[in-house]
């Protein structure tokens, strides 16, 4: 039976900015065995393309912007949904000028910021630096807002996430990704993105394997029984998965050993 591995990127495939050779070898074995491989991420297309082109990954679909933008194996747009413009502008206005806070707009293909911290360059992320006026013009095309809270604790970021979900419960859902907050249209998640690709993947729900390292992966863990995270992940997160492993290749080994 054909199986599908849906993998997060940052902190899962990419560890300290690199994909290990052992992980790449395992992905190659997965594909040679006839199984599917998709990437599920909060990233936009440009920053995801960097990864699969650099490492020559053969992919069968992309769930981008935490499920708000989905591309098929030919990189054609398969699904997209924008955050309501008035909500995007209100969130931007509320946090953009607060000390220690930075805002990013993601339209699916690119990421835009009117100011950003130095570590963005260190992460080798492709970000379009634009004016505040251009950010305002972009507000009607946004699939994900990333709220960066420098220096904040996990508990502080969790509190902000909960406040956003309470205030805009009819329009968005916010996920904590370490000390970032990813905000997407209501109804969008990595799990919903996988479900939309299910027919193209030719895999039934019980043959979907998912792996991630943070809370924006929770929807995958809750929706698919073959769920994996890492032994070093947050303890609370580990309670939502069936398996904990040391690496992506351990997950792939488990998938390949199934009859």
TrEMBL record:
It holds the Pfam family Hydrolase_3. The keyword Transferase does not apply. SUPFAM superfamilies: HAD-like. One of its GO terms (cellular component) is cytosol. Keywords: Hydrolase. One of its GO terms (molecular function) is magnesium ion binding. NCBIfam families: Cof-subfamily (TIGR00099), HAD-SF-IIB (TIGR01484). PANTHER family: HAD SUPERFAMILY HYDROLASE-LIKE, TYPE 3, PHOSPHOSERINE PHOSPHATASE. This is HAD family hydrolase.
């Amino acid at each position: 039976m054909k199986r599908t591995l849906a993998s997060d990127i940052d902190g899962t495939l990419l560890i300290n900015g690199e994909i290990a050779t052992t992980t790449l070898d395992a992905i190659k074995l997965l594909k040679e065995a006839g199984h599917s491989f998709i990437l599920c991420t909060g990233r936009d297309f440009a920053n995801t393309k960097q990864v699969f082109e650099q490492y020559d990954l053969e992919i069968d679909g992309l769930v981008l912007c935490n499920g708000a933008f989905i591309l098929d194996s030919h990189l054609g747009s398969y699904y997209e949904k924008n955050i309501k413009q008035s909500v995007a502008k209100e969130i931007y206005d509320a946090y953009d000028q607060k000390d220690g806070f930075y805002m990013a707009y993601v339209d699916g293909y690119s990421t835009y910021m009117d100011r950003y911290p130095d570590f963005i360059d260190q992460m080798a992320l492709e970000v379009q630096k634009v004016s505040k006026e251009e950010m305002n013009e972009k507000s009607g095309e946004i699939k994900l807002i990333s709220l960066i809270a420098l220096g904040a604790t996990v508990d502080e970021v969790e509190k902000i996430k909960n406040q956003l979900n309470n205030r805009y419960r009819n329009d968005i859902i916010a996920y904590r990704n370490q000390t970032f907050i990813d905000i997407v249209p209501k109804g969008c998640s990595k799990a919903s993105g996988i479900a939309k690709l299910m027919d193209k993947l030719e895999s039934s729900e019980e043959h979907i394997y998912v792996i991630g390292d943070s809370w924006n992966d929770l929807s995958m863990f809750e929706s698919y029984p073959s769920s994996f995270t890492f032994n070093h992940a947050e303890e609370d997160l580990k309670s939502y998965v069936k398996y904990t492993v040391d690496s992506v290749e351990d997950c792939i080994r488990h998938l390949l050993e199934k009859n």
